[in-house]
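USER:
I would value a second opinion on how I read folds in token form. Give me a protein, with the fold worked out from its sequence. Write it directly below this note and I will take it from there.

ASSISTANT:
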Amino acid sequence: MTTHASPPGSSAAEAPGSSTGTPPATDDLTATVFRNAQQSQSFGRLRRAQRAFAVVATTAVLSLYLLYVLLSSYAPGLMAGKVVGNLNVALFLGLAQFAATFLAAWLYTRHANRRRDPLAEQIKEGIEQARIRAHSHVEAEGTAA
């Protein structure tokens, strides 16, 4: 979802998406609500949780892939070694790439469901409540004038 808030000092006619009839004051309030949410501690925790998981998972999966490539290039004798019957180390490491990818996807989903989604929902509810309060305040000022 993209939100367009008019920059300070510009008119509503110049703002992108101003054809919706939303007054510039409401757009400024919405932008302020989103800016405050983005600068909150909860949002920072959400970003850190995402970044930490992404760095660890990406590093693990890429390290396994790099190990496979390096062993294929520099240790062909090891990679040709038989494990079970005609199945060699290279085949098992190649299949491990698929397993690592599926494991990373499963762990990502689990991490998101347990850690990030509840925090994101909390932030979303806070934004919705702040927008309702801000719009109610604008409407109350409009009827008082």
